[in-house]
Design brief:
By secondary structure, this protein is of the alpha+beta class. It has 2 helices and 10 strands, in the order αββαββββββββ. It is elongated.
């Protein structure tokens, strides 16, 4: 019986010690943290690429004859290429007259040029794609897939609005077109 009493006393003493030990250990019941970041707009690297696949800022038509203008037979393919996109799901590309540039006339969809010429701009193929207007400057929405996108375009040199082939003079023809890219 003496063993039982001692065992009970020892068990009670161990239980009381354990209860006191739990009461003495107090932990942190909650934590807080502050998260800091800078939200930056997504971007891509944008380039104009000619029909041969070269990055360029000029689309060369080389020699164009008056018969090419009358027949509307000279066009050049090129692309606006968006690459290395980060944080971007889509982009909107807009073509507009560049600095010092203008539309062929106040009501023309053509982009004005020199020597009584102008340029039509087409998304896709000439005559079957979507003609881009110098006046209304429609947005071309482009989905970004695998970090990039291409906008296939064609430019066609034509006689300027309100002009005839007799008004066309020889010389270097230029038209500055700016592509504005807005990322989404």
């Amino acid at each position: 019986m003496r063993h039982t009493t001692a065992l009970i006393a020892l068990t009670l003493a161990g239980g009381l010690f354990s209860a006191f030990a739990n009461a003495a250990i107090t932990g942190t019941s909650s934590l807080s943290a502050t998260f800091l970041s800078t939200v930056v707009p997504g971007t891509c690297t944008a380039n104009v690429v000619d029909g041969a696949g070269n990055t360029t800022s000029e689309i060369h038509f080389n020699d164009v004859f008056k018969s090419d203008l009358s027949n509307k037979s000279r066009s050049e393919a090129f692309k606006v290429v968006l690459s290395q996109c980060s944080g971007v799901r889509a982009a909107e590309v807009t073509a507009m007259p560049g600095a010092g540039g203008d539309c062929s006339t106040a009501t023309s969809d053509n982009f004005g040029a020199t020597h009584a010429t102008a340029f039509e701009l087409w998304k896709g193929n000439v005559d079957s794609g979507t003609r881009l207007s110098c006046q209304s400057q429609p947005l071309q929405k482009v989905p970004i897939v695998d970090g990039g996108a291409n906008v296939a375009l064609n430019a066609r040199i034509v006689i300027a609005d309100d002009k005839t082939i007799a008004d066309v003079t020889p010389g270097d023809v230029t038209s500055l077109i700016t592509f504005q890219v807005e990322y989404q």
